[in-house]
Amino acid sequence: AGAETVKRAVQLDVASRFQESLVCYQEGIDLLLQVVKATTDEAKKHRYRQKISEYMTRAEDIKKHIEKEKQDGKYHKQIRIEENATGFGYEKLFREYLTEIVSEVWVEDPYIRQVHQASRYLLYNFLRFCEMLIKGPCKVKTIHLLTSYDEGSGRSQQMTALEEIKQSLSNYGVTLNIDFSSSIHDREIRFNNGWMIKIGRGLDYFKKPQGRFSIGYCDFDLRPCHETTVDVFHTKHTKKM
Protein backbone atom coordinates (compact mmCIF):
# COMPACT_ATOMS: atom_id res chain seq x y z
CA ALA A 1 0.00 0.00 0.00
CA GLY A 2 2.86 2.36 0.82
CA ALA A 3 4.57 1.72 -2.52
CA GLU A 4 1.32 2.33 -4.44
CA THR A 5 0.69 5.56 -2.53
CA VAL A 6 4.12 7.02 -3.24
CA LYS A 7 3.82 5.88 -6.86
CA ARG A 8 0.64 7.94 -7.08
CA ALA A 9 2.45 10.83 -5.36
CA VAL A 10 5.15 10.78 -8.03
CA GLN A 11 2.55 10.74 -10.82
CA LEU A 12 0.77 13.75 -9.32
CA ASP A 13 4.12 15.46 -8.79
CA VAL A 14 5.02 15.05 -12.47
CA ALA A 15 1.58 16.42 -13.41
CA SER A 16 2.27 19.53 -11.25
CA ARG A 17 -0.65 18.67 -8.98
CA PHE A 18 1.50 19.54 -6.01
CA GLN A 19 -1.07 19.81 -3.21
CA GLU A 20 -2.48 16.34 -3.96
CA SER A 21 1.04 15.00 -4.46
CA LEU A 22 2.10 16.27 -1.04
CA VAL A 23 -0.79 14.49 0.66
CA CYS A 24 0.12 11.22 -1.09
CA TYR A 25 3.80 11.59 -0.20
CA GLN A 26 2.90 12.11 3.45
CA GLU A 27 0.53 9.14 3.51
CA GLY A 28 3.03 6.94 1.65
CA ILE A 29 5.87 7.87 4.01
CA ASP A 30 3.74 6.95 7.04
CA LEU A 31 2.89 3.57 5.49
CA LEU A 32 6.52 2.85 4.60
CA LEU A 33 7.65 3.71 8.15
CA GLN A 34 5.23 1.07 9.41
CA VAL A 35 6.81 -1.43 6.99
CA VAL A 36 10.29 -0.58 8.30
CA LYS A 37 9.18 -1.27 11.86
CA ALA A 38 7.80 -4.67 10.87
CA THR A 39 10.83 -5.69 8.77
CA THR A 40 13.61 -7.74 10.34
CA ASP A 41 15.81 -7.90 7.25
CA GLU A 42 18.45 -5.17 7.73
CA ALA A 43 19.20 -4.85 4.03
CA LYS A 44 15.52 -4.22 3.26
CA LYS A 45 15.31 -1.75 6.14
CA HIS A 46 18.24 0.17 4.69
CA ARG A 47 16.62 0.36 1.23
CA TYR A 48 13.31 1.48 2.70
CA ARG A 49 15.02 4.17 4.76
CA GLN A 50 16.83 5.49 1.70
CA LYS A 51 13.56 5.73 -0.23
CA ILE A 52 11.78 7.33 2.71
CA SER A 53 14.56 9.92 2.96
CA GLU A 54 14.19 10.73 -0.74
CA TYR A 55 10.41 11.10 -0.46
CA MET A 56 10.71 13.26 2.66
CA THR A 57 13.13 15.58 0.86
CA ARG A 58 10.78 15.89 -2.11
CA ALA A 59 7.77 16.48 0.16
CA GLU A 60 9.65 19.27 1.94
CA ASP A 61 10.53 20.86 -1.42
CA ILE A 62 6.86 20.76 -2.44
CA LYS A 63 5.85 22.36 0.87
CA LYS A 64 8.25 25.23 0.21
CA HIS A 65 6.95 25.60 -3.35
CA ILE A 66 3.33 25.74 -2.17
CA GLU A 67 4.20 28.25 0.53
CA LYS A 68 5.94 30.49 -2.02
CA GLU A 69 2.89 30.34 -4.28
CA LYS A 70 0.72 31.41 -1.36
CA GLN A 71 3.02 34.32 -0.58
CA ASP A 72 3.04 35.37 -4.23
CA GLY A 73 -0.74 35.05 -4.45
CA LYS A 74 -0.43 32.44 -7.22
CA TYR A 75 -1.72 29.34 -5.45
CA HIS A 76 -4.50 27.46 -7.28
CA LYS A 77 -5.94 24.02 -6.64
CA GLN A 78 -8.86 22.51 -8.56
CA ILE A 79 -11.10 19.71 -7.32
CA ARG A 80 -13.47 17.96 -9.69
CA ILE A 81 -16.58 16.49 -8.07
CA GLU A 82 -18.05 13.85 -10.35
CA GLU A 83 -21.76 13.18 -10.83
CA ASN A 84 -23.14 11.06 -7.94
CA ALA A 85 -19.81 11.18 -6.08
CA THR A 86 -19.97 10.96 -2.28
CA GLY A 87 -17.54 11.97 0.44
CA PHE A 88 -17.68 15.71 -0.26
CA GLY A 89 -19.44 17.07 2.81
CA TYR A 90 -18.59 20.60 3.88
CA GLU A 91 -16.14 19.41 6.53
CA LYS A 92 -14.25 17.41 3.92
CA LEU A 93 -14.13 20.32 1.48
CA PHE A 94 -13.39 23.24 3.81
CA ARG A 95 -11.74 21.92 6.98
CA GLU A 96 -8.24 22.04 5.47
CA TYR A 97 -8.51 25.83 5.11
CA LEU A 98 -10.23 26.63 8.40
CA THR A 99 -7.14 27.24 10.48
CA GLU A 100 -7.32 28.54 14.03
CA ILE A 101 -6.70 32.14 12.93
CA VAL A 102 -9.91 32.28 10.86
CA SER A 103 -12.27 34.72 12.56
CA GLU A 104 -14.17 36.21 9.62
CA VAL A 105 -15.92 34.55 6.67
CA TRP A 106 -17.52 35.99 3.52
CA VAL A 107 -20.15 34.00 1.60
CA GLU A 108 -21.41 35.17 -1.79
CA ASP A 109 -24.20 33.03 -3.20
CA PRO A 110 -27.24 34.43 -5.02
CA TYR A 111 -29.49 31.51 -4.11
CA ILE A 112 -29.55 31.35 -0.31
CA ARG A 113 -33.29 31.64 -0.51
CA GLN A 114 -36.20 29.25 -0.21
CA VAL A 115 -36.01 26.22 2.04
CA HIS A 116 -37.21 24.19 -0.93
CA GLN A 117 -36.81 25.43 -4.49
CA ALA A 118 -36.56 23.17 -7.52
CA SER A 119 -35.79 20.27 -5.15
CA ARG A 120 -32.98 22.22 -3.47
CA TYR A 121 -32.45 22.90 0.23
CA LEU A 122 -30.51 26.14 -0.03
CA LEU A 123 -31.13 27.73 3.36
CA TYR A 124 -30.53 24.40 5.07
CA ASN A 125 -27.23 24.13 3.22
CA PHE A 126 -26.16 27.54 4.51
CA LEU A 127 -27.20 26.52 8.02
CA ARG A 128 -25.11 23.35 7.73
CA PHE A 129 -22.14 25.44 6.57
CA CYS A 130 -22.53 27.71 9.62
CA GLU A 131 -22.66 24.67 11.91
CA MET A 132 -19.36 23.50 10.46
CA LEU A 133 -17.78 26.89 11.19
CA ILE A 134 -18.94 26.80 14.81
CA LYS A 135 -17.46 23.34 15.37
CA GLY A 136 -13.99 24.73 14.66
CA PRO A 137 -11.05 24.47 14.89
CA CYS A 138 -11.38 28.08 13.72
CA LYS A 139 -12.72 30.81 16.00
CA VAL A 140 -15.21 32.50 13.68
CA LYS A 141 -16.74 35.67 15.10
CA THR A 142 -18.32 37.24 11.99
CA ILE A 143 -20.00 35.78 8.90
CA HIS A 144 -20.90 38.07 5.99
CA LEU A 145 -23.59 36.77 3.65
CA LEU A 146 -24.30 38.42 0.30
CA THR A 147 -27.25 36.89 -1.53
CA SER A 148 -30.33 37.96 -3.50
CA TYR A 149 -33.91 38.45 -2.38
CA ASP A 150 -36.33 35.66 -3.05
CA GLU A 151 -39.08 36.60 -5.46
CA GLY A 152 -42.74 36.80 -4.63
CA SER A 153 -44.18 35.03 -1.62
CA GLY A 154 -40.91 33.25 -0.87
CA ARG A 155 -39.28 36.45 0.44
CA SER A 156 -41.07 36.31 3.78
CA GLN A 157 -39.95 32.72 4.34
CA GLN A 158 -36.40 33.63 3.33
CA MET A 159 -36.22 36.55 5.76
CA THR A 160 -37.71 34.54 8.60
CA ALA A 161 -35.24 31.70 8.09
CA LEU A 162 -32.20 33.99 7.83
CA GLU A 163 -33.24 35.88 10.94
CA GLU A 164 -33.57 32.59 12.83
CA ILE A 165 -30.09 31.55 11.69
CA LYS A 166 -28.77 34.97 12.73
CA GLN A 167 -30.28 34.71 16.21
CA SER A 168 -29.08 31.15 16.66
CA LEU A 169 -25.52 32.11 15.66
CA SER A 170 -25.55 34.94 18.20
CA ASN A 171 -26.02 32.33 20.94
CA TYR A 172 -22.55 31.07 19.97
CA GLY A 173 -21.00 34.53 19.89
CA VAL A 174 -21.09 34.75 16.08
CA THR A 175 -22.45 37.80 14.23
CA LEU A 176 -24.19 37.24 10.88
CA ASN A 177 -24.26 40.28 8.59
CA ILE A 178 -26.72 39.90 5.72
CA ASP A 179 -26.72 42.01 2.54
CA PHE A 180 -28.74 41.64 -0.64
CA SER A 181 -27.89 42.35 -4.26
CA SER A 182 -30.01 42.02 -7.39
CA SER A 183 -26.93 41.74 -9.60
CA ILE A 184 -24.87 39.11 -7.76
CA HIS A 185 -23.81 36.16 -9.93
CA ASP A 186 -20.55 34.89 -8.45
CA ARG A 187 -20.43 32.10 -5.92
CA GLU A 188 -17.44 32.20 -3.62
CA ILE A 189 -16.41 31.77 -0.01
CA ARG A 190 -13.49 33.65 1.55
CA PHE A 191 -11.70 33.32 4.87
CA ASN A 192 -9.62 36.07 6.44
CA ASN A 193 -6.54 33.84 6.43
CA GLY A 194 -6.33 34.38 2.65
CA TRP A 195 -8.14 31.30 1.34
CA MET A 196 -10.80 31.71 -1.34
CA ILE A 197 -13.01 28.83 -2.56
CA LYS A 198 -15.15 29.08 -5.66
CA ILE A 199 -17.69 26.31 -6.28
CA GLY A 200 -19.48 26.17 -9.61
CA ARG A 201 -22.80 25.38 -7.91
CA GLY A 202 -22.14 27.33 -4.72
CA LEU A 203 -23.18 25.52 -1.54
CA ASP A 204 -25.88 23.70 -3.48
CA TYR A 205 -23.92 20.82 -5.00
CA PHE A 206 -25.77 18.04 -3.19
CA LYS A 207 -28.56 16.04 -4.77
CA LYS A 208 -32.01 15.81 -3.26
CA PRO A 209 -32.12 12.93 -0.74
CA GLN A 210 -34.32 10.00 -1.74
CA GLY A 211 -36.32 10.40 1.44
CA ARG A 212 -36.20 11.83 4.94
CA PHE A 213 -35.08 8.47 6.29
CA SER A 214 -32.58 7.57 3.58
CA ILE A 215 -28.81 7.38 4.08
CA GLY A 216 -27.28 10.74 3.30
CA TYR A 217 -30.22 12.82 4.50
CA CYS A 218 -28.37 13.93 7.65
CA ASP A 219 -24.74 13.14 6.81
CA PHE A 220 -23.63 15.15 3.78
CA ASP A 221 -20.53 12.95 3.36
CA LEU A 222 -22.94 10.19 2.30
CA ARG A 223 -25.08 12.41 0.06
CA PRO A 224 -24.56 12.01 -3.73
CA CYS A 225 -23.37 15.21 -5.44
CA HIS A 226 -24.06 16.99 -8.68
CA GLU A 227 -21.08 17.34 -10.97
CA THR A 228 -19.22 20.56 -10.24
CA THR A 229 -15.76 22.12 -10.03
CA VAL A 230 -14.16 23.59 -6.92
CA ASP A 231 -11.35 26.13 -7.36
CA VAL A 232 -9.20 27.01 -4.35
CA PHE A 233 -6.98 30.09 -4.31
CA HIS A 234 -4.76 31.74 -1.74
CA THR A 235 -4.47 35.50 -1.84
CA LYS A 236 -2.38 37.91 0.19
CA HIS A 237 -5.41 39.98 1.06
CA THR A 238 -9.01 38.79 1.13
CA LYS A 239 -11.20 41.49 -0.36
CA LYS A 240 -14.19 42.68 1.61
CA MET A 241 -17.69 43.30 0.39
Automatic annotation (TrEMBL):
InterPro entries: MIT_dom, MIT_dom_sf, MIT_domain_contain_protein1, MITD1_C, MITD1_C_sf, MITD1_N. It comes from the Eukaryota. Residues 1-71 form the MIT domain. It holds the Pfam family MIT. SMART domains: MIT. PANTHER family: MIT DOMAIN-CONTAINING PROTEIN 1. This is MITD1 protein. It comes from Toxostoma redivivum. The gene is Mitd1.
